[in-house]
Amino acid sequence: MKVQNLPGTTRRAFTLTALGASAAIALAACGGGSTESAESEAPAGGETSATLTMWTDAERAPALKDIAAQFKEDQGIEVDLVIKDFAAVRDDFITQAPTGKGPDVLVAPHDWLGTLVQNGVIAPVQLGDKADDFTEASVQAMTYEGQVYGVPYAVENIALIRNTELVGEAHETFDDVVAAGEASGAEFPFLVGLDPKQADPYHTYPLQTSFGAPVFEQAEDGSYDVSQLAMNNDGGKEFAQFLADNGDQGTKVFNSNVTGDIAKEKFLAGEGAYFLTGPWNVPAIEEAGIDFAIDPLPTAGGEAAQPFIGVNGFLVSSYSENELAANEFVVNYLSTEAAQDALFDQGGRPPALISSFEKAASDPVIEAFGEIGTSGVPMPAAPEMQAVWADWGATELNLIKGNESDPAAAWEEMSKNIEAKFNG
Amino acid sequence: MNGESTSTRGAVAPAAGPKGTGRGGRRLPTNPDGMIGIVAKILLLGFVDAIAAFALFQLAINGEWLVFAVSLIVTIGINWIYLRRGGLPAKYLAPGILFLLLFQVFAMVFSTYIAFTNYGDGHNSSKEDAIDSIQLSALERVPDSPQYAATVLDDGGELALLVTDPDGNVSVGTAEEPLEPVESAQLDSTGKAVGLDGYTTLAFGDILARQGEVADLVVPISDNLDDGTLQTQDGSTAYVFKPRLVYDEAADTFTDVSSGKVYTDSGEGTFQAEDGSTLGVGWKINVGFDNFVRAFTDQNLRGPLLSVILWTFAFAGISVAATFALGIFLAIAFNRADLKGKRIYRILMILPYAFPAFLSGLVWSGLMNAEFGFINNAILGGAYIPWLTDPVLSKISVLIVNIWLGYPYMFLVCTGALQSLPEDVEEAARIDGAGAWTIFRVIKLPLLLVSLAPLLISSFAFNFNNFNVIYMLTGGGPRFDDTNLDIGATDILITMVYKVAFGGAGRDYGLASALAIIIFIVVGVISAISFRKTKALEEIN
Amino acid sequence: MSTSQTSTRTPVEHIPQVKMSFGRWFKEKGWRHVVAIAATLFSIFPLVYVLSAALNPTGTMAGTTSLFTNVGLQNFVDLFSDPDRPFGKWLINTLVIGLTASAGTVFLGACAAYAFSRMRFAGRRFSLLALLLLQMFPQLLAVVALFLLLNYLGDIIPAIGLGTSLGLIMVYLGGALGVNTYLMYGFFNTVPQSLDESARIDGASHMQVFFRIILPLVTPILAVVGLLAFIGISSDFVIASVVLTDPDTQTLAVGLYSYVAQQRSENWGVFAAGAVLAAVPVMALFLYLQRYITSGLTSGSVKG
Prior knowledge:
The complex is a heterotrimer.
Chain A: H1 9-48, E1 51-56, H2 61-75, E2 78-83, H3 86-96, E3 105-109, H4 113-118, E4 122-123, H5 136-141, E5 143-144, E6 147-148, E7 150-156, E8 159-163, H6 174-183, E9 188-191, H7 201-209, E10 216-218, E11 224-229, H8 234-245, H9 260-268, E12 272-277, H10 282-287, E13 292-295, E14 308-317, H11 323-333, H12 337-347, H13 354-360, H14 364-373, E15 377-378, H15 385-401, H16 407-423
Parallel strand pairs in A: 1-2, 1-3, 9-12, 14-15
Antiparallel strand pairs in A: 3-14, 4-14, 5-6, 7-14, 8-12, 8-13, 10-11
Helix pairs in contact in A: 2-12, 8-15, 8-16, 12-13, 15-16
Chain B: H1 34-62, H2 65-83, H3 88-115, H4 127-138, E1 139-141, E2 148-155, E3 158-164, E4 170-174, E5 180-181, E6 186-187, E7 193-195, E8 200-201, H5 204-209, H6 211-216, E9 219-220, E10 229-232, E11 237-243, E12 245-248, E13 253-256, E14 262-265, E15 271-272, H7 290-297, H8 299-302, H9 305-334, H10 342-349, H11 351-354, H12 357-367, H13 374-379, H14 391-418, H15 423-431, H16 436-464, H17 467-473, H18 493-502, H19 509-533
Chain C: H1 4-8, H2 22-55, H3 74-81, H4 87-118, H5 124-136, H6 142-156, H7 165-173, H8 179-189, H9 193-201, H10 206-217, H11 219-235, H12 238-243, H13 252-257, H14 268-293
């Protein structure tokens, strides 16, 4: 297409440039002015108070909002809460912290510690004498490679929830539990939600430990030796056999088709006698009007059934330029009884601070979960766990589905694969 | 399927462009456009120039001269494009291309650059950052050492730490002067020393104002540095610290204080000891073609690669063909003015496209549950069909869901494209006695393909990398039996890349990018060839 | 205009309609209804589960058991009563960002398509191919790149930095020249060039040709592209969640996701309720645009 060459073009172009340029100068002048004023404000603001940025997810935001307001009143430090999607927090933090745009403080579950430390994005905190105020397991969970990286505030673990209308009293062993469930006439004697893609080693872990097959060996101080698997032992193989026996082709106590949501629905409908789950499902159970009791985890292999404990805590960024304010907030403020009480009131998760927990334990549900938690072990936080979960889950799924003719061999194979990934 | 890049739901869409100043470039062409055109042009160009000038001003202040130069060239280029007489195509293309370069091409360049680095977990920042953070986490509190109550003092600009040990003994020290006992400190009601003659006590606000300084304050406990140092992290409590690792700046090595092990820069972005052990935190370095070499030599990728490649092509090809066939069939079926209720049909049919894909994925995986799912229970009367766990059926299921997700898009596009068909041609054919199928095959389809062929190719490319539908429905499973990898029957190349690069101990972005670029080259070449073959670039006019 | 379709279908179909036999009716139109109902059912039935979950206060999303066992509006009440998750604001943000960015996408795409369709210039074929290939580049690291870029841009021009809607809109505009351009390019090619040539002879500028002749003729595809862009933008989660972090500025997709982001404490009920409501603007836009989409090309200026 050809553009017509018109006589007026040049003059028009000139006018245009002139107008454009003058507009540009005007805007630049305004813009420049505003920047200068912004710059001159910044240091002045910094002298009187600091502003902390904290990442949290929507669940925890309401409780933190009040605490942040109180902190501002007490110490004059503003805490700017940024609500991120829980699932995105870890990866975004790792990418953004080195740019200086990350937060000063964040809320995280302890099993992220391995990856966060590996990326050098969080700084150790010193709890000092305060460490004794927290439950031992929660501080242990916040410890990675000998350093404490966060102030714990909530502890979570699973328990066995029993529909008391169907089963009148608690039972200690898995066999008794299942027998009682079956005797109750419930459609599902024992419910546990499994991910159809990779089962759920987290939920089945207490049963596994009852065979004496912990995933890693634990040292005296509670730290894990992740250099080699411990579950590759005879107990582990027995557990593999146990899964196969009770899987889809066996008693169907573990049903690979029962997802977390299906298990929840069935239990809420009163069709399940037992439900192996965590405190997150308790509000819905209460709401559905089910009479329930919280039983200790049953042993299947004869040894103690130890659940995994998940601890949520507050971490400080190693890239924070407000390290003092951040430590003041995290170590000195969020560790107080008042703060932990408030977090419990809003979030309903069992507090990690002993004195707060004792208050919260006036609720029998919290007390029961807490009691069971004392026998638990922190989920390993090493970055290698990602590989462990994938293989572990896939193998358990195969066992449950009855796809493995030789469960012990499948377990052995899994252990070899995982160890190969550690070394590779 | 949703082939367009911004609007692929859930898919990672466009991204970033290089520095430069974003500017909302709009343009209107020169020519005898009347007053409105000229005024609009003046205003828009002036606006763009104003923003550009502002950005240039800021860049100059910040000393970003390289970006300044690029931005200046771009700004001049824009003015040149719109003020000169010729070059009409550029006037229409410039704004779109500007955004494209800024946000899409930058992401490409960035990904390519990452493919040549070891960026990923454990290597996410610079060496300085890594050294800082190793030092930070190696600084350990001396076991069983006392916890001191601390007050920060100012001594003529220099900071000092006034500490009270648990027994009530008060000492003071600075970075230069090791801790020394003092007698005359002012105590508060708890017995904590809060002031000392000759020093100014810093209030909390003052400490905050100088928090960097306070945090960096290291007070030796005695003349012997091995006894440890006092530091405070909050300005009110101090602990005795000793480093587990000491960094020697001159030699660029870390030494383990207790074992004497020396860690040196291994050249691979980590500090490594002679026995091969490394310090956890590494840094990002350029690794040349290492990632590409790994991509071709990694044993893990060997085994199931062929079946994954075949399935990837099958998945993408069938998805495009099926959604297009269904979309065009429905579009034609409803393209009749006198069809009652067609508005309702249309709106219900595009509903799947309006819901979040992962929600739909979740629903579908529930529907396809072998024991409790609606499909087996209600439609098939209680059959036990393992839709998602059988190697063959799971492939079919993934395709069904992908077709469900994608056909509304094709339906919409075809409905729009159908409007461009000249009806008189069809009319003439009909009068000549051609049947509906013949009219479609001989007249409509070729005409439609002129405008839709590029779309089909790009839809193929989109499905080639359709991570989401696989991931949310089957996660790639069921696993292959003959591999020890987490790879299964429904894994396509991109989900395999994800598992290989992110499934081990941390995410390896470098390897992931390299693998993704290799896939891009493969699919790009295929697309470029088919693009030429369809002569989609030729006009019908 | 809108009658052109019916009129070209010749009166033959209209007159016997009154006494059309069932066989004839089925052959002409009946099968279309059968197909339509089948297709609609295929489209709708999974979504019925979403609706059921939205009305079910227990918050599960199993998609398996019987539907509508437990019906209540609690999820919708929850959705609107959480001050930390301002659903109303999300809705407005989505509309503002979605409509602005999709209008921009249509405009930028149409300009480019016009250039590609009507002008011949060096590098044209290459540009078309490059646009296509660009779509195929795996965007694995796009989010990281985007974060770094907006972080940098924000330091220079705060108005388009991280956390701003404007920045997000610009990112979306980065994708304007893509498949959308192709779609429009193909459609533009079907408009006979003789039309703009005769207009040029009448003294119209290329701009007038573009705005007054071409654009009105291609409204169906503009409407389709606009709708697709709006759906895409309003359902984008990945980019929006990195750019927008303040709940008051978030879009629906990002905000709603927070209800299900945490494993094991997902609230599918509220999420489903939000998803149902979020589909309403899309439906409304489609209803509004539908008459343009099917308005027919061979109207107005072509005939005239």
